[in-house]
Design brief:
Blueprint lengths: L5 E4 L2 E4 L3 H8 L2 E2 L2 H11 L4 H4 L3 E5 L1 H9 L4 E7 L7 H17 L3 E5 L1 H6 L7 H17 L7 E5 H4 L4 H8 L4 H8 L7 H11 L8 E7 L3 H10 L9 E5 L27 H11 L8 H7 L7 H10 L3 H13 L4 H25 L1 H10 L1 H8 L6
Parallel strand pairs: 5-6, 5-8, 6-7, 8-9
Antiparallel strand pairs: 1-2, 3-4, 4-9
Helix pairs in contact: 7-17, 9-11, 13-17, 15-17, 18-19
Bound molecules: tryptophanyl-5'AMP.
Length: 384
């Protein structure tokens, strides 16, 4: 059978992604078997994300759990490129990271790559735009509820100068041909962007412990380079836990894109916008007429509202299987399924917004004044 065409890079995800093929192509490990069982036990209420293979792949997660069990510890690292408002797919990475922090009580570094989004020319963002979105996105991230003494939000344009000596050590080890092969740089790529990978690698070297990075699998190319150079610098190879992409609301053939707001639900969307987007634009596996739907049933496999419930919003295994059965049998109509999703999203957004309104107070702790932030700002990076 011909392999399906799709693209997954840190800057572009398109086509119908074949996740098994990505595991092969990227050289990662499937997250299954005893290791997945172990993670499920640790995660408790959030274990469904592993059980349902939303987080489906990893690098060295077994070694991370081993280090934890033996008291050597580890730390977490994730990030966000502030190119616009955050959508549900972005924020799910941060909730997952917070749940890991809650279980393991470990330090967590969150990188805000305002430099990357300014340098990425196809986005055409002004420097001011990136600063605006960094502020907005940081509020959403602070709303997630990370431990303010164990979490450091490093915004690149503020922090990177301070850590420059270590960035130089990283940059000197990455040559152009490797960067070009991994990222597809061309003669037209601006030189700021060529340097940028050394900056995304920095947070993985902030402690001499193993670093576990939760993210969707699009970010993995950075960790491949990191793993080639970390040990020569006296650090550990980065470990990763990779998620699939929450599909665009409009269907897997589409892309979540800020130029097409109907493809995603943003954290800033009002209840009415959520209702309208899901009702009008969510790709449905339902039939054309009620009569036909009752007779033939809906196709849950391609139905985006069902996928969103399965991947994120409905934690209860019994309930999700009941919804699947009802929908497939035709007893549940598309409108009813959409209503279930609308209610779940609205409930989540309402809670998130309440936390966001109070998050202003924690931002300064996370960026400057909390215990971990202070430690980072006072570290002498010429000596690490
Ligand atoms: P960014 O801002 O593109 O994405 C932020 C996080 O969201 C994940 N993601 C998704 N997850 C689920 N469903 C989707 N549809 C979806 N789209 C994106 C991304 O994988 C990421 O985890 N260069 C990075 C910023 C960064 C970073 C990091 C991310 C710096 N250091 C370390 C992760 C880990 C970026 O622009 O992410």
């Amino acid at each position: 059978m011909p392999e399906r065409q799709f693209t997954v890079t840190p800057w572009e995800v398109s086509g119908v992604v074949d996740y098994d093929r990505l595991i092969r192509d990227f050289g990662t490990q499937p997250l299954t078997g005893p290791l997945a069982d172990k993670m499920e036990k640790i995660l408790g209420d959030e274990a469904y994300l592993i059980r349902r293979h939303v987080f489906f792949s990893h690098r060295d997660l077994d070694l991370v759990l081993d280090d934890h069990a033996k008291g050597r510890g580890f730390f977490l690292y994730t990030g966000r490129g502030p190119s616009g408002p955050m959508h549900i797919g972005h924020i799910m990475q941060f909730y997952f990271t917070k749940w890991l922090q809650d279980k393991f009580h470990v330090n967590t570094y969150i990188q805000i790559t305002d430099d990357e989004k300014f340098l990425e020319e196809k986005r055409d963002l002004s420097y001011e735009d990136t600063q605006h979105w960094a502020r907005e996105n940081i509020l959403d991230i602070a709303a997630v509820g990370f431990d303010p003494d164990k979490t450091f939000i490093l915004q690149d344009t503020e922090f990177i100068g301070h850590a420059y000596p270590l960035i130089l050590k990283i940059a000197r080890r990455i040559n152009f041909s490797v960067a070009r092969a991994v990222f597809g740089f061309t003669n037209e790529t601006n030189i700021g962007f060529l340097f940028y990978p050394s900056i995304q690698i920095l947070p993985s070297l902030l402690e001499k412990k193993r670093c576990l990075i939760p993210a969707a699998i699009d970010q993995d190319p950075y960790w491949r380079i990191q793993r080639d150079i970390a040990e020569s610098l006296g650090y550990y190879k980065a470990a990763a836990i990779h998620s699939k992409f929450l599909p665009p609301l409009t269907g897997v053939q589409d892309k979540m894109s800020s130029s097409k707001p109907e493809t995603a639900i943003y954290l800033t969307d009002s209840d009415k916008m959520v209702r309208d987007k899901v009702k009008k634009h969510a790709f449905s596996g339902g039939r054309d007429t009620v009569e036909e739907h009752r007779r033939l049933g809906g196709n849950a496999d391609v139905d985006v509202p069902f996928q969103w419930l399965y991947m994120l919003f409905e934690r209860d295994d019994k309930r999700i299987e009941q919804i699947r059965t009802e929908y497939r049998s035709g007893r549940m109509l598309s409108g009813e399924l959409k209503k279930i999703l609308i209610d779940k999203i609205s409930e989540f957004l309402e809670e998130h917004r309440k936390r966001r309104d109070k998050a202003h107070k924690t931002v300064s702790l996370l960026k400057h004044d909390g215990a971990l932030a202070k430690e980072m700002w006072t570290r002498d990076f010429s000596k690490v």
